[in-house]
Design brief:
The complex is a heterodimer. By secondary structure, chain A is of the alpha+beta class. Chain A contains 16 helices and 12 strands. In chain A, the strands form 2 sheets. Chain A has a 6-stranded mixed sheet with strand order 1-2-6-3-5-4, with helices on both faces. In chain B, strands 1-2-6-3-5-4 form a 6-stranded mixed sheet, sandwiched between helices. A 5-stranded mixed sheet of chain B has the order 7-11-8-10-9, with helices on both faces. Classes of the chains: A alpha+beta, B alpha+beta.
Chain lengths: ~475, ~500
């Protein structure tokens, strides 16, 4: 048996002293004559005191916000930059601009370092440096061994401040985007998600996806302009964790980004999505032996005070093994392997409520009916005391898992500021969940769940359905653009 | 700094970091073997008050008989259904019903197996009877009690997975809840009851449809692997073919459970905010008296060498996809380390050979990857996977790949290329230590498959000794037409 480092032993003893007396079942060795059995239902445990780990917030002279959390366990530094930019800002007709810009940023090299040179240097150091622009945020992130931090950070700064968008690399990104669109109907689950999103956000940037035409219309100049419009210090938040020296890092960042000019913020006005409150039944014919079923409607954003009651309701209705959906549709009836539902908490706009499952063709209508009726059931009566307690205990007791890694801690804190969460959100989270009552769950179910106003999308082989989809209302057939 | 280990550093490449890592992990991992053969690996990590607890049984789909494919995986599902005390209101009353369900299900299957000759009325009667019995038995079930107990106590990531080589059960818990884990898992190991068997079978059938039938890429994978192995069970789909799943019974599952799920066949990894001495005491208390079980024999089947190329086509409603697999030995054979080098040379990053040639220069494919599969206990395949970029064809991509493989046979790898690989392995060694679950996974996997978790420490040192001549020799020996399996999707 290896000897333990003294430090660990001491730390552990201190942490446990308060609690060891209360553990049911001895922690001292018993004779192993019979296997120990304690009833897991009634075990008692020592208390766990948990303080939310804090990272430090610093604002650079140029307005860039930096969150820092040192962690010297491993010789690695992780950094992520968040910028307010996204596909929600794509001009109409150029849907895909943000996404292409994000992809081309990294691969296109910089004005000081040609793309091949950048690839070679980074990969020889085993550093990763990647960029992407998503719906409502841009990410540029790096991960490096401590010994390579300086050079990797320098390349990161070059990418942020003077990317080159090498023409050949830009064209390749476009070609890959085109290929991606050609493949977007290969997986029935991808089709269903896309079409549901389009139905929930009709005519809104959140519901759009790039097309061959829109991708072909985007020029290299468009990419350059997009990057210049949104990449500047005051629009950038960094999250850094790992094996770095605080003062040295801040000094380096000031030096690398000191000359990066700020810009006047210029964000396109994006309207709030509107819910027309209508039901819809959409079908995509595909010859598969299992239907993909997705249904949903507009939901809530993070500023909604009913957020906590909704999280509790989500857990009971569709969140995991113990949920109503999983127990009935999967476990009791064997109709599906995957079934769940959730409110996606919107950050800049309202997110959707989504319920989903997949079932063999012959039980398509049965499973869809059951899904809807279980959702509707949440609006008809209060959940039981047991369900409420399980949900609250589960959410509260697993809270610590949001902080199991230093990179997760610092990124979460950066994002809270980035998206404008209220102060104390994390600190008050568990108490806010603890306050939720059965009455609250019913109230929010009635207010935010609309089982009769769902957009329903089914991708599957109508010839094999147990009943026609028109059971649910008038069906709109979606023909996929089969791209050539 | 501790003294250097016994394996001597011969090359001038930067190996000091390798030995430093080796020492770090070697320091941190504590081993303990119970008298019943169960192996416990522990790593204290106090980053957060959480613990990842993994239990891996050294049995996977490769241990199945060919008429019981899918059994290991279905059994894994069944081990979430409870025990004689958990998951039931009254096992004494429930058990006779479960036995009746089993008898009725077997009769039903026997009748259905007569296919055209089956007596329709009898099938209908038995189906109705089975349904009635299942509903009666349902009254005794306390739904999802394991999941309930873990969840309310803050458990996260409760799950399991079955591979060719092993079956692993995982949970992450707050560090003050380890006794809950010991109580549940020791009960599960001794007293599992496979209730709701025939409903769960339906769930697995849906899982099959979702992963392999409804998605051409999944279908390609399954068909390709099955085609690559004429004899060895490495070719058998872990989830089972549909008819396999439909003919599994609770009796077969119980036999498999008792044969393989015993302490001598189990490896535990507990990583996180623990005190190893207390953990050992806990594990001894709860698992120490469980009888060892019988040793599991290795698989006797040997895959005969291929006599010629095999090609597998899947016609599907999807864009083309290509897979090429070459038979190779598995770890810890010396050539397997050479394949690790070849793998990284070919597809690790934008500077890798296949990425540069296929994706950037010739622009024939949008992505290319390589890996060893399926499983690591027995000889496996080195696989290259690529997505052709329209209008380029599978055939063009295939030719381009072979050109690069020919280069490997003739052009020596450079010292810089090997150093880049070592640098990337160095980074990966640290990165994999940054999560409790990731570390637990690697410890259980390599302890089970390589015979010792120390494989993780020794790996980079072994790779550092590989020469350009080794790469050329291995490429010449294995990248031959006769040894080749090619699978592809043709769009319908």
């Amino acid at each position: 048996m290896k000897s333990m480092k003294r430090l660990f032993l001491i730390a552990w003893s201190l942490a446990l002293i308060a609690g060891c007396a209360t553990t049911q079942g001895a922690t001292t060795k018993e004779s192993a004559s019979a296997p120990k059995s304690s009833d897991p239902r009634t075990l008692a445990f020592p208390p766990l005191e948990f303080q939310i780990p804090k990272s430090e917030r610093v604002q650079l002279k140029n307005g860039m916000v930096v969150y820092l959390l040192q962690d010297h366990e491993l010789p690695i530094v992780n950094l992520t930059a968040y910028l307010n930019a996204g596909s929600i800002y794509d001009p109409p007709g150029k849907v895909g601009l943000a996404s292409l810009t994000g992809a081309a940023l990294r691969t296109g090299g910089t004005q000081a370092t040609a793309p091949d040179q950048m690839d070679r240097e980074l990969e020889f150091m085993a550093s990763s440096l990647e960029s992407s622009i998503n719906t409502d945020h841009a990410n540029v992130s790096l991960s490096t061994l401590t010994k390579n931090l300086d050079r990797t950070l320098a390349l990161f700064a070059e990418l942020m401040t003077k990317p080159a968008f090498d023409p050949a690399r830009v064209e390749l990104v476009r070609l890959h985007a085109i290929e991606g669109i050609r493949r977007q109907n290969d997986d029935p689950k991808g089709i269903a998600s896309r079409e549901l999103n389009r139905a929930i956000y009709p005519g809104h940037p959140m519901g759009r996806t790039p097309t061959l035409a829109s991708v072909r219309s985007i020029t290299r100049d468009d990419l350059i302009a997009f990057q210049q419009r949104y990449f500047y210090p005051a629009n950038t938040t960094l999250a850094v964790s790992g094996d770095f020296d605080r003062d040295k890092l801040l000094k380096t960042l000031e030096s690398l980004f000191g000359g990066w000019p700020n810009r006047t913020p210029s964000f396109p006005a994006v309207p709030d999505p509107k819910d027309d409150g209508s039901a819809a039944v959409l079908h995509v014919q595909k010859e598969v032996n299992q239907s993909v079923i997705r249904m949903g409607h507009l939901g809530i954003d993070k500023n909604n005070p009913d957020l906590y009651a909704i999280k509790v309701m989500d857990f009971i209705l569709g969140g995991g093994f113990t949920s109503r959906l999983t127990q009935e549709i999967r476990s009791n009836q064997g109709l599906a392997y995957n079934v769940d539902s959730y409110f996606e908490t919107g950050r800049r706009f309202k997110g959707p409520f989504i319920a989903e499952t997949e079932t063999k063709s012959e039980t398509t209508v049965k499973a869809t009916t059951l899904l809807r009726s279980i959702i509707a059931g949440m609006t008809l009566a209060e959940v039981s005391q047991e369900e409420l307690k399980l949900a609250k205990d589960s959410i509260i007791n697993s809270f610590i898992f949001g902080f199991a890694r230093s990179d997760a801690v610092v990124n979460q804190q950066a994002r809270l500021e980035f998206y404008g969460y209220p102060a104390g959100y994390l600190e008050n989270f568990r108490d806010n969940i603890a306050r939720v009552t059965r009455g609250d769950v019913l109230r929010v179910a009635r207010k935010y769940l609309h089982p009769d106003a769902m957009k329903l999308v089914v991708v599957g082989d109508a010839k094999k359905f147990d009943q026609p989809l028109s059971t649910f209302g008038s069906v709109r057939e979606i023909t996929l653009d089969n791209v050539k | 700094m501790k003294i250097l280990p016994r394996f001597i550093v011969v090359l001038a490449l930067s190996l000091s970091a390798a030995t430093a890592f080796g020492q770090g992990l070697a320091d941190k991992v504590q081993e303990y073997t119970l008298k019943n053969g169960m192996k416990l690996l522990m790593v204290p990590r106090h980053t957060s008050p959480t613990v990842a607890a993994w239990i891996r049984f050294k049995v996977g789909s490769v241990d199945e008989r060919s008429d019981e494919r899918g059994l290991a995986h279905l059994l894994e599902h069944m081990l979430f259904k409870g025990t004689k005390t958990l998951g039931t209101r009254d096992f004494a009353a429930e058990k006779p019903l479960l036995d009746q369900i089993e008898a009725t299900a077997q009769q039903l299957m026997a009748e259905q197996l007569k296919r055209d000759q089956a007596d329709g009325k009898e099938v209908a009667r038995l189906t109705k009877e089975l349904d009635r019995l299942e509903k009666d038995a349902e009254k005794y079930v306390v739904k999802e009690e394991f999941a309930d107990l873990y969840s309310r106590n803050g458990g996260s990531g409760y799950n399991a997975f079955t591979s060719k080589d092993g079956t692993t059960y995982i949970i992450n818990l707050p560090s003050n809840k380890m006794e809950l884990w010991a109580a549940i898992e020791s009960d599960r190991m001794q007293n599992a009851v496979l209730r709701e068997f025939y409903t769960e079978m339906k769930v697995v059938k849906e899982e099959r449809r979702r992963s392999y039938d409804a998605e051409p890429e999944g279908k390609l994978w399954e068909t390709f692997i099955a085609g690559a192995f004429n004899a060895h069970p490495n070719g058998q789909p872990t989830i089972g073919w549909m008819s396999d799943i439909e003919n599994l019974t609770r009796t077969k599952a119980e036999r498999f459970l008792h044969k393989y799920y015993a302490p001598n066949n189990a490896i535990m990894a507990i990583v996180g905010d623990i005190d190893p001495q207390r953990t050992i005491a806990l594990v001894e208390n709860y698992f120490g008296a469980i009888p060892a079980g019988t040793p599991v024999p290795p698989i006797a089947v040997e895959e005969p060498p291929q006599a010629g190329e095999k090609r597998t086509e899947v016609v599907g409603d999807a864009e083309p996809e290509l897979m090429i697999g070459f038979h190779k030995p598995t770890l810890p054979a010396p050539d397997d380390y050479v394949f690790d080098v070849i793998d990284m040379l070919l597809t690790s990053g934008r500077t890798s050979r296949l990425y540069k040639k296929l994706v950037q220069e010739k622009q024939l494919a949008t992505s290319v990857s390589s890996f060893s599969a399926p499983g690591s206990r027995y000889p496996n395949l080195f696989i290259i996977n690529a997505s052709p970029r329209a209008p380029h064809t599978v055939s063009e991509v295939e030719s381009a790949i072979y050109e690069e493989l020919e280069r490997l046979k003739k052009e020596p790898m450079t010292a810089k290329e090997l150093q880049q690989i070592l640098n990337q392995l160095e980074f990966e060694e640290s990165r994999q230590m940054s999560s409790n679950g990731g570390l637990a996974r690697n410890l259980t996997e390599y302890e089970a498959v390589a015979g010792s978790w120390r494989y993780l420490i020794e790996h980079r040192q072994k790779v550092a000794l590989i020469t350009a001549a080794d790469v050329m020799r291995v490429a010449k020996q294995y990248f031959t037409r006769e040894n080749r399996n090619v699978g592809f999707i043709t769009k319908k």
